[in-house]
Amino acid sequence: MRLLSVILLLAAFLPLPQAKAGGVGLSVTRMVYLSSAKQASLSVRNTTKEDPFLIQSWIENEQGDRSNDFVITPPLFVLKPSSENALKVIFSGEPASQDRETLYWLTAKAIPQMSDDTQKNVLHFASASRIKLFYRPANLADQADKAWEMISGNLHRNRISLKNPTPYYITLVELKVDGKTMKPLMLAPKSEAELEGSFTQAQQFSYRTINDYGAWTAEVTRQLTTR
């Protein structure tokens, strides 16, 4: 580890290579796939003016393992400079549950293309965009816009647990306990999660969430219950 640190430190002062990173990104920060949909789509954009990229895309399950529940097409293609291309996502598996959402991860990796006349002193780095993909049963489609208001909190033996009674994944941002900022937290459907730290006389918590379109909701403040 020490040798690696020395190498990285020396490399930082070498004038030879020029680093090139990709200006490639996805058009959305999250994706909701309704079970009633035949397919969903999103765009991959290349904002660089000169560099083409090879785009490789795949989907993983909640644990980070490659999943065959979805087909993503095209899985591999060249994205030209200053252009964008659509990725189509098609569900082809068996629903894990009909009473709650299932979480997946969609990754689009941008690999710089090498040409014969590429400068030898240029370093090319592959980059990847990774977003949450929520598979949502169609019977839950009309309830999602109220879910973010349903979070409750409990204080027991100086520990705080937050409860999500809804069938949706809910990401809490700007989470605070009595005004003290906490780490963002994603609550799985119909689950509880305990906050890090000890809280002796905490009274309330506040939070905002991220909706289906990637926007933040209004701040909510809740009183903590004790038991």
From TrEMBL:
Residues 1-21 form the signal peptide. The keyword Lipid metabolism does not apply. GO terms for cellular component: outer membrane-bounded periplasmic space. Keywords: Chaperone, Fimbrium biogenesis, Periplasm, Signal. Residues 162-217 form the Pili assembly chaperone C-terminal domain. Residues 23-140 form the Pili assembly chaperone N-terminal domain. Belongs to the periplasmic pilus chaperone family. This is Fimbria/pilus periplasmic chaperone. It comes from Mixta tenebrionis. The lineage of its organism: Bacteria, Pseudomonadati, Pseudomonadota, Gammaproteobacteria, Enterobacterales.
